[in-house]
Design brief:
By secondary structure, the chain is α/β, with parallel strands linked by helices. The chain has eight helices and 13 strands.
Length: about 350
């Protein structure tokens, strides 16, 4: 937990930190999360493993704070409804509070800071840019915005106005990523945001990439998205005087070897599953990689796809429902199950 002070009040932000070996000081990437549908306190903490891994390789420390009311952070989430400009500023208050707290650590280089965010975190990042916080060199916006359905909210127009207002009060360079098949913020909307931002005399760099899997909105959280954002980001970081050369070797997490237990699509061969579990496995087969399916001898099962470490998420979710150990059955297109004596449930 990160202890922060905001408007005279004390909060605890659930915060994930990745650091290179050594004592630093390290340049910092402060990465900001989006908002899922439902109760923010039930939202899982974000780790942005793919992004964090590439920045740590290049000698950066990475901090991902969960803002007020999200996950295990204290406080209550609030917003300003359809007023996107104020929504961004409200979340930027949390970013500033987290950054002030982090800068008390002597392992952070206070003169070399990048602020980044995905979705609602991207909107908050652009709002934070107006504060001209000392040491912040640039902004990274991964599909930044906030969608509000219903309630008579013209959220797209409100987003355009928000970006225009942010641009009038910042000189920070920024790099944006918006995908063609983003289910929230597609290319036409991204071009509107860009035009509004440029109208204030600020020229961000926009990477309007093509389709990414089933939904480009998840590109930043996918290991397969690295090939899209990393080359552009390296060139951008060089231009703003930030390090880009790999200096740390990070061993990839060991992946279980593929086995010949059964063909991937042989649903009847998956052990322990009831009919509901077989339906779940059939759904899993239709998901994009990276993906993983876990199960246990108790009949519990779970799958995860995209995002941070689906293997770990599938195991954790399965174990919450099982009194017996859960094991991985499949990763991506491979069967990794080794217990050939397991019975098949009826």
């Amino acid at each position: 937990m990160l202890s922060v002070t905001e408007h005279g009040n004390e909060f605890q932000f659930e915060t994930t930190i990745f650091k290179p070996p050594g004592n630093g000081p390290f340049p910092l990437l402060l990465m900001n999360h989006g908002k899922e549908i439902g109760d923010p306190h039930k939202q899982k903490r974000d780790r942005f493993l793919a992004i964090s891994r590439e920045f740590v390789k290049r000698g950066y420390a990475v901090a991902i704070p969960m803002r007020r009311g999200f996950a295990r952070s204290t406080g209550t989430y609030t917003d300003h409804g359809c007023n996107m400009a104020d929504n961004g500023h409200l979340q930027a208050d949390d970013i500033e509070a987290a950054l002030v707290a982090l800068l008390k650590q002597n392992w952070i280089d206070s003169e070399r800071i990048i602020i980044g965010g995905q979705s609602y975190g991207g909107l908050a990042t652009m709002a934070f840019g107006v504060r001209q916080f000392p040491g912040v060199r640039a902004l990274l916006n991964f599909a930044g915005g906030l969608r509000v359905d219903g309630r008579g909210c013209d959220w797209k127009n409100s987003l355009v106005k928000a970006f225009a207002s942010y641009a009038t009060n910042t000189s920070l360079p920024s790099l944006w990523f918006y995908g063609e098949n983003d289910s929230y913020f597609d290319h036409p909307l991204a071009m509107q945001l860009l035009s509004a931002y440029q109208s204030a005399g600020v020229a961000p760099e926009l990477s309007a990439f093509g389709k990414f899997k089933n939904d480009a909105h998840g590109m930043a959280g996918s290991r397969d998205g690295v090939s899209i954002w990393l080359p552009e980001t390296e060139r951008f970081l060089q231009r703003v005087g930030m390090p880009t050369s790999p200096v740390v070797e990070i061993a990839e997490m060991a992946r279980p070897a593929a086995t010949n237990f059964s063909p991937l699509d042989n649903i009847a061969a998956v052990p322990y599953l009831t009919s509901a579990g077989r339906t779940g496995y059939r759904d899993y087969l239709n998901k994009s990689s990276p993906r993983a399916f876990a199960l246990s001898a108790s009949g519990s099962w779970s799958w995860a796809s995209e995002g941070d470490d689906p293997s770990d998420r599938a195991l954790v979710s399965c174990q919450k429902k099982s009194v017996m150990p859960c094991k991985l059955f499949s990763i991506d297109n491979d069967i990794v199950w080794v217990d050939s004596t397991a019975p098949i449930a009826n």
